[in-house]
Design goal:
Layout: E1 2-6, E2 10-16, E3 42-47, H1 49-59, E4 65-70, H2 75-83, E5 91-93, E6 100-106, E7 112-117, E8 137-141, H3 146-159, E9 163-165, H4 176-183, E10 188-192, H5 193-203, H6 207-213, E11 216-220, E12 226-230, E13 233-237, H7 251-264, H8 269-283, H9 296-307
Parallel strand pairs: 1-4, 1-8, 2-6, 4-5, 8-9, 9-10, 10-11
Antiparallel strand pairs: 2-3, 6-7, 11-12, 12-13
Helix pairs in contact: 1-7, 3-4, 4-5, 7-8, 8-9
Length: 315
């Protein structure tokens, strides 16, 4: 199966402040804020929704195409992706700009101040033809360039290609009419609790309106698990217990990779969500969003241990 992952590619630049932001921000002077935090150092990680999802899919024995844009500084990230068997043909390089970057400073209370530079993500990608006539196709439309998201959804609908719509942090760039049109006809709408509430408010829809327009709705709830809805039927999906919780940051993207693997194997929705839950459990055991590693056997063993049945063979 051809799997296309559309979304962002970014460098996450993570800094730790050995103090407390509250000690240096004066409420009476917030209107003329001018502060500097001396950090302990900077760690750079590969990130972005498209990169994170594709990375975990590579651990699940898939080799998806990434559909995104990148800047002049993308070379080391590209080497990493290719090392893991990921296809970079549809990553468009934008000259004269940097790859998107998140600059995250965390204090000793785990408060965060983040600056995000969209960089190359501000430019639309070159979109691939979605149906080669020889292979079935699955598309994940994740938070990234709005033009890409909208056009991919339109192409999927017109070509009868199943797609997962994952608005994530892009919700603030859409009008209600725009995103309602983009979502229509999706195989799956996936978000967390907050994003779902924001989406419903933005579109002025009830949950039933969304359920009538997509085949399934998945709402992730962090360590509480996730909720699968197919029309009126709702099924709770428990979270899989990791060996230890180190960093939950990449769990959502890993869940999506497990879900996509299940969909590519043509599994039932519940099985796909179980696979997502297992993939997420590996991600939280490591710092960063592309630091975890596992083999297919380890994935299948954890799946069977937690859910009590084997991963079904693909259709």
């Amino acid at each position: 199966m051809n799997i296309y992952i559309s979304g962002s590619l970014a460098y996450d630049r993570i800094m730790t402040f050995p103090g407390y932001f509250a000690d240096h921000i004066l409420p009476s002077k917030i209107h003329v804020l001018n502060v500097c935090f001396n950090i302990n150092g900077l760690v750079e990680k590969f990130g972005g929704t498209a990169g994170n999802i594709a990375y975990t899919l590579s651990l699940l024995q898939e080799s998806p195409w990434i559909v995104a844009t990148a800047g002049d500084d993308f070379e080391r990230y590209e080497r990493w992706l290719r090392h893991h068997g990921l296809r970079t043909q549809w990553i468009k390089r934008i000259a004269g700009v940097l790859t998107a970057g998140a600059y995250i400073t965390t204090d000793q209370n785990d408060n965060q101040i983040t600056a995000f530079n969209p960089g190359a993500m501000a430019f639309p990608a070159d979109l691939p033809p979605l149906n080669d006539g020889a292979h079935s196709t699955l598309v994940h439309i994740g938070p990234g360039n709005k033009t890409d998201m909208s056009e991919l959804a339109r192409r999927c609908r017109s070509g009868g290609v199943p797609f997962v719509f994952d608005p994530g942090q892009s919700l603030n760039i859409w009008s209600g009419e725009e995103i309602a049109e983009a979502v229509d006809g999706a195989l799956c709408f996936i978000s967390n609790d907050y994003e779902l509430s924001h989406f419903l408010k933005l579109t002025n829809w009830q949950l039933s309106d969304l359920a009538s327009r997509v085949e399934m709705i998945i709402t992730t709830q962090g360590p509480e698990g996730s909720l699968l809805q197919v029309r009126e039927d709702k099924i709770f999906i428990p979270a899989v217990t990791p060996t230890e919780v180190v960093d939950p940051t990449g769990a959502g993207d890993a869940y999506r990779a497990g879900l996509l693997k299940g969909l590519a194997m043509k599994q039932e929705p519940t099985v796909c969500c179980h696979m997502g839950s297992v993939a997420a459990s590996f991600a939280v055991e490591h710092h960063g969003t592309q630091e975890h590693h596992f083999h297919w056997k380890a994935f299948c063993d954890r799946f069977e241990k937690h859910f009590g049945y084997k991963v079904p063979e693909g259709a």
